[in-house]
Amino acid sequence: MGALSIIFLFFASVLPKGNSLFYILSSVCIMIIVWLYSIKLGFVAYIVVSLLSLMIVPNKLVAVLYILIFGLYPLFKAICERGFPVYIELGLKLLFYNVALIILYFVFKIIMKEIPNFKFGIALTIASSEVIFVLYDYLLTLILQKLKSLKIPWRGN
After folding, report:
1. Contact 81, 89 (CB under 8 A)
2. CA–CA separation, 15 vs 117, rounded Å?
3. Average pLDDT over the chain, rounded to an integer
4. HEC profile for the chain?
5. Is the pLDDT score of 99 beyond 80?
6. Binning pLDDT at 50, 70 and 90, where does residue 137 land?
7. Which of 3-12, 19-28, 42-51, 105-114 has the lowest average pLDDT?
8. Residue 156 has pLDDT above 80, yes or no
């Protein structure tokens, strides 16, 4: 799964279209490890893929996005979905995303040496990206439900 994550991140880096699909697929790889084995093993895979992506993936921005959001989120999602009420779960997930956005904003600022320009304003950009993030979370949930319906016999949990 880790190798697949690296391949998907490489594709996200070099292919001009469809990189969102490859980010999601790299997330699904970590989610599968968490579901089949454990959050600990998922975290180890996340660290290994993050370090390898910094070395192998040509576009380091892709690696940074993976490290801050797409690789870490399946781990956070698994923790949030273990007993919290739905409204707290959603609040924690949005908090995670907004903190990641703030960090990403400052990483861009450091790398690009200037403040990014938001065509429609920062508030609308954040609000629309939060809607997309909730859709991403829902998509991961649907994928996980489909995996669970397959009744994979070697599941480690």
Report:
1. yes
2. 24
3. 87
4. CHHHHHHHHHHHHHCCCCHHHHHHHHHHHHHHHHHHCCHHHHHHHHHHHHHHHHHHCCCHHHHHHHHHHHCCHHHHHHHHCCCCCHHHHHHHHHHHHHHHHHHHHHHHHHHHCCCCCCCCCHHHHHHHHHHHHHHHHHHHHHHHHHHHHCCCCCCCC
5. yes
6. very high
7. 105-114
8. no
CA distance 138 to 89: 13
Other C-beta atoms within 10 Å of 25: how many?
A: 18
Tokens matching residue 55: 């070395």
Identity of the amino acid at 25? L
41: its two tokens: 């093993």
